[in-house]
């Protein structure tokens, strides 16, 4: 009887435990010079923009590894951005272009730039849901090539940029 009680207790605790903050599935690739990454996970976060905290930035985070638990534990946008070691972050709503930043090789290789908003072909693009394809090809100017498809709902909203 004690064993059954223990099993039931463990099962109830497991069912009531918060879900691990896994990312939504993404499909895609990131290539920069001789480095590359498969983009397998996506998250949609938003919060104060670090350049102008009076603006709210919506960001898509695309990564090779599932960093959802690390993103969930962050208290600031800067912390969340720092979790990306192999992937790309795209900023929406803060300029007339899409700002992006890539990281590869454990963040030892980084590149940032902007791209025409037409690089994102939206199936959904609102306050709580972003879906579509992202195509960045800045190879001709020494930048990366990104091809990704994702469908994400808001994962986390931050109150502080830093």
Question: Could you walk me through the main structural features you see in this protein, from its secondary elements to its overall organization?
Answer:
The protein is of the alpha+beta class and 162 residues long. The protein has one domain. The chain has three helices and ten strands; from the N terminus they run H-E-E-E-E-H-H-E-E-E-E-E-E. The protein is globular. The relative contact order is 0.22. The N terminus is likely disordered.
Question: What structural keywords apply?
Answer:
alpha+beta; ten-stranded mixed sheet; 3 helices
- Sequence stretches where pLDDT stays below 50 over 5 or more residues: 1-20
Please indicate the count of domains: 1
Q: How many beta-strand segments?
A: 10
* Global geometry: globular
Instruction: Please bin the fraction of helical residues.
Output: 10-25%
Average pLDDT confidence is 89
Order of helices and strands: HEEEEHHEEEEEE
Distance linking N and C termini: 53 Å
Over the alpha carbons, how many angstroms does the gyration radius reach? 18 Å
Query: Sheet with the most strands?
Result: 10 strands, mixed
Pairing-aware structural class of the strands and helices? alpha+beta
Q: Quote the beta fraction.
A: over 45%
Number of helices: 3
């Amino acid at each position: 009887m004690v064993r059954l009680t223990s099993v039931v207790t463990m099962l109830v605790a497991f069912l009531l435990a918060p879900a691990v903050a896994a990312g939504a599935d993404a499909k895609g690739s990131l290539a920069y010079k001789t480095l590359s990454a498969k983009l397998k996970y996506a998250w949609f976060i938003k919060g104060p923009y670090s350049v102008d905290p009076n603006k709210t930035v919506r960001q898509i985070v695309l990564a090779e590894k599932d960093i959802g638990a690390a993103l969930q534990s962050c208290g600031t946008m800067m912390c969340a951005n720092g979790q990306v070691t192999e992937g790309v972050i795209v900023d929406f709503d803060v300029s007339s272009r899409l700002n992006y930043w890539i990281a590869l090789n454990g963040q030892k290789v980084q590149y940032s730039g902007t791209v025409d908003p037409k690089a994102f072909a939206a199936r959904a693009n609102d306050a709580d849901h972003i879906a579509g394809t992202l195509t960045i090809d800045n190879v001709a100017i020494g930048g990366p090539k990104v091809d990704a498809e994702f469908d994400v709902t808001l994962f986390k909203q931050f109150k502080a940029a830093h």
